[in-house]
UniProtKB/TrEMBL annotation:
EC code: 1.5.1.2
Family membership noted in the UniProt record: Belongs to the pyrroline-5-carboxylate reductase family.
Name this protein carries in UniProt: Pyrroline-5-carboxylate reductase
One of the record's GO cellular component terms: cytoplasm
Residue stretches making up the Pyrroline-5-carboxylate reductase dimerisation domain: 163-262
Encoding gene per record: proC
Reactions catalysed, as given in the entry: L-proline + NAD(+) = (S)-1-pyrroline-5-carboxylate + NADH + 2 H(+); L-proline + NADP(+) = (S)-1-pyrroline-5-carboxylate + NADPH + 2 H(+)
NCBIfam families assigned to the protein according to its UniProt record, in alphabetical order: proC
Cited InterPro entries: 6-PGluconate_DH-like_C_sf, NAD(P)-bd_dom_sf, P5C_Rdtase_cat_N, P5CR_dimer, Pyrroline-COOH_reductase
A Pfam family reported for this protein in Swiss-Prot or TrEMBL: F420_oxidored
Positions bound to NADPH: 57
Keyword Amino-acid biosynthesis annotated: yes
Residues holding NADP(+): 9-14, 70-73
Main localization category: cytoplasm
Amino acid sequence: MENISVAVIGYGNLGSSIVKGLVRSQKIDPSNITATRHRPLEGKTTNYLGINVSNDNVAAVKASDIIIIAVKPYRVKSVVEEIAPALDPKKHVLVSVASGVTIADILGFLKTEDLPVFRAMPNIAAAVGESMTCISAHASTKEQSALVQEIFDQSGETLLINEELMDAATVLGACGTAYVLRFIRGMMQGGIQIGFSSHDARKIALQTVKGAAELLISNGKHPEEEIDSVTTPKGCTIAGLNEMEHQGFSSSLIRGIVTSYEDILKSK
């Protein structure tokens, strides 16, 4: 990937997370990465990353192989129409990370179906190389699909899915980050109530969540198998788990996920 050039159109929270993930991976030279944004970027940010910065989307496209559209969904149409004349099906691969914008929408904005178009849904953990990114493709070769997947692999884990599941992937993988953060905040609040300082409660909660995830990743077990290994008869763990279930812990989480998904469907 060292000879690949990437343009990230839209340097907001998600776009900057993708750029930081790419720079962090050291698989792509920062000088081969261009980020564009209407508002000027702070010099200290760009100097630190070593990337190119521009407010010229067309120039960024012409200088790049992979084009990642990371603007707000309502701006995708105008941006795609702006860069469409500069896109070459023999050179460029277009990737959209805009939530709710389908591949069919993008093809309509392009007024062609010849260009390889991908839809990807990473999350903000891309900035630290721990995103979960789901990817769908149109008119791509195996090599192009592998390249796009490799690019997002630098920011975490990837999964190729049918586009019909992309809204669900948005909820589980992107909105899910916020759900987990809210859970961590709840752990911290509980820790403070039973005697820890905010700093210590945060440290314990973060490492506990990280450790639990690593257990499942390493062992490949179902969560309940690991839960069974730490619950003992009449123990404090099962007492706490049962109380959480009595208060609707799992049910609330499931309902929250489903509500977010339904909200996406309503917005279409």
